Amino acid sequence: MKKLTAGLTLALTLSIGATIGTAAPASADELSYLTAISRLGIAPTDGNYVTLLRWGYAVCADKSMWVPLDTTVENLVWNPQNNITYTQAQGMAIAANTFLC
Question: Measured between alpha carbons, how far is 18 from 14 in angstroms, rounded to an integer?
């Protein structure tokens, strides 16, 4: 019984190690983020899509500093340069968390 348990433990450890070793590295998918943002009807006020990426990465920065999502959304809405609704800001935060963070 001990040999069976030891064998199963070794097999499980090796399979977990192989899974972790072959996992794809995390990376930002900026094109998918911008596509999601455009579907929400959000356009950059200055005509530069880099601005939208900055907003998305700001959401990621807030997330990494444990800022509550509601606070991040409110900051996006109340920023006079953004010109977006609360619902759009929620969608932007979700898109940023999904594709950029």
Answer: 6
> Considering the domain boundaries, does residue 4 fall inside one?
no
Model-level pTM? 0.67
* pLDDT tens digit sequence for 22-47: 444 456 789 999 999 999 998 887 88
**What residue numbers bound the domain in which 83 lies?**
30-99
Q: How far apart are CA 93 and CA 42, in angstroms?
A: 12
Structure tokens at 48: 């530069």
Does any domain span residue 77? yes
Q: Domain tally for the chain?
A: 1
Beta strands in the chain (DSSP E): none
The span from the CA of 45 to the CA of 81, in Å, is 7
